[in-house]
Amino acid sequence: MGITHHGRTHRLDLADPTLREWECTVLHADPEQGIVLDRSAFYPGGGGQPPDHGVLLWQGVQTRIVGTRKGDDLWLIPAEGDPVPPAGTTVTGAVEDDRRTRLMRTHSGLHVLCGVVFRDFGALVTGNSMEPGEARMDFNLPEVPPDFKARIEELVNAEVAADRSVAVRTLPRAEALALPDIIRTQSNLIPPDEQEVRIVDIVGLDVQADGGTHVASTAQIGKIQVVKVESKGRANRRVRVRLAD
Ligand SMILES: [Zn+2]
């Protein structure tokens, strides 16, 4: 698939996560299968980040997009009953800004949490999931330190306030796998046939192989609340967080 394309679709979301509106052409459309565009900024879902919602606008008609399906092509799923633009139609694509922006802030916030918990408590991530504005992350942490909940909330918000830059780059596979931080996080999630690996680097805090969309610097995440720390198994701690606004 490569880094910039999924099937026939040029992915615009990876190069510019701030893009919300663009012109494109429908390559294939079917009310059951979905719609394939030549260029798309819809995040298709992956790495715990859910897919975008949005619309296609064409000839005075609106097609709501409520999800995606990843196969040989990147299929956009239209809302049931909405008209579907025929192949060859020029459309304006638009990603629902509120949902995507909250997902970007939430996703970057999880990387800050992951970086802080590894740096200060030595714990590895075992799983995560997110919705716009709220998320959970599981850590392998046999002993819960005193005041863990309050301490991680303070540490995470200190890194948000420090406004660390979030740098995205792609590296050749061998070079990416040689990064010590990559080994500890998600090396097993890098597809074996992928020759280039996308790296999300919260500079000075956390480096991960990651295909998601992120804010440009940690201040854009905004204040994070640690809602709850739960025990899920002997060594597994589930940390629930949410954006404060
Ligand atoms: Zn991530």
TrEMBL record:
Cofactor: Zn(2+)
SMART domains found in the cross-reference section: tRNA_SAD
Top-level taxon: Bacteria
GO CC terms: cytoplasm
Pfam families reported for this sequence: tRNA-synt_2c (PF01411), tRNA_SAD (PF07973)
GO biological process, one term: alanyl-tRNA aminoacylation
Domain Alanyl-transfer RNA synthetases family profile, residue spans: 1-245
Protein name, as recorded: Alanyl-tRNA editing protein
Organism: Micromonospora endolithica
